[in-house]
Automatic annotation (TrEMBL):
This is ParA family protein. Coiled coil: none annotated. Residues 4-183 form the AAA domain. InterPro entries: AAA_dom, DNA_Partitioning_ATPase, P-loop_NTPase. It comes from Planococcus halotolerans.
């Protein structure tokens, strides 16, 4: 059974995409014991940094860009825990577009490189999560073409809602132009302030826009502990840690429900 591949996206920066990518991968692997590969497609490498810090990995010798240049991603996979692997990124990855244009003649080859190189790895995993920059770019194009589903992150503010709308429109463009075969898994709200009026109205507008079934019932509330983990790595030492983990475990449960629904619908088609 090939891995279900999920890109976590929004065309607005700072909405929590990387944290969601990392934490859903972490909970699937370390609690649900699923085989997970986290692919860092962002030259800033924030997902790689957080994962490495959490697992005590002090040195990363090869990154995703090395894998692209060598035509083999298997050699750049870093083992994080028993069930979690990482394909890390670094700042050198900023030259990705230049590399694509110099190496491949047509745009379909350029935007399907990740899909092509992930294919041999998919049998090794239950899930592959892809973290991308918040831009319309070769990074997001490659991630979309390689994925079965997109999990859209919605921070409770107007610009994030617009970013989510743009993301869905761009998905449609990719489907029309390049036959991208990707489904919207759902829209996951990330709240700025629990109980905040603006947050609530943004979630309500998202529900009107995307449909009630498409907006996650579980939300990521503003948790100070998540900020602390940026410095300490992911911990599970006290009730604040456990509360933060439970938030993402609930999201993982809802992802499972949505995936099961998609599979059931595809069987009946």
């Amino acid at each position: 059974m090939a891995a279900k591949t999920i890109v976590v996206g929004n065309f607005k920066g700072g909405v929590g995409k990387t944290k969601v990518s990392v934490m859903t991968s972490w909970e699937y692997a370390n609690v649900h014991k699923k085989k997970v590969l986290l692919v860092d497609m962002d030259p800033q490498g924030n997902a790689s940094t957080l994962i490495a810090r959490s697992a005590g990995i002090e040195e990363i010798n090869k990154t995703i860009f090395d894998g692209f240049k060598e035509g083999n991603l298997q050699d750049v996979v870093v083992k994080v825990t028993e069930h979690l692997d990482l394909i890390p990124a670094a700042v050198s990855f900023k030259n990705f577009s230049k590399f694509l244009y110099q190496t491949f003649q047509n745009d379909l080859e350029q935007i399907t490189l990740l899909k092509t190189l992930l294919e041999p790895l998919k049998a090794n995993y239950d899930y592959i999560f892809i973290d991308v920059p918040p831009t319309i770019s070769d990074y997001s194009d490659n991630a979309m073409m390689a994925s079965d589903y997109v999990l859209i992150i919605l921070q409770a503010q107007e610009l994030s809602l617009e970013g989510a709308e743009t993301y869905v429109s761009y998905l449609q463009f990719m489907a029309d132009e390049y036959e991208a075969d990707i489904q919207v898994l759902g829209v996951l709200p990330v709240l700025l302030r629990a109980g905040g009026r603006v947050d609530q109205s943004t979630v309500e507008r998202a529900t009107e826009l995307f449909g009630e079934d498409n907006v996650f019932k579980n939300v990521i509330k503003h948790l100070e502990r998540l900020k602390a983990w940026d410095m300490t790595g992911i911990k599970n030492e006290d009730h604040h840690d456990r509360k933060a983990h439970q938030t993402f475990l609930d999201v993982v449960d809802e992802i499972e429900e949505k995936l099961a629904r998609f599979e059931e619908e595809s069987v009946h088609v």
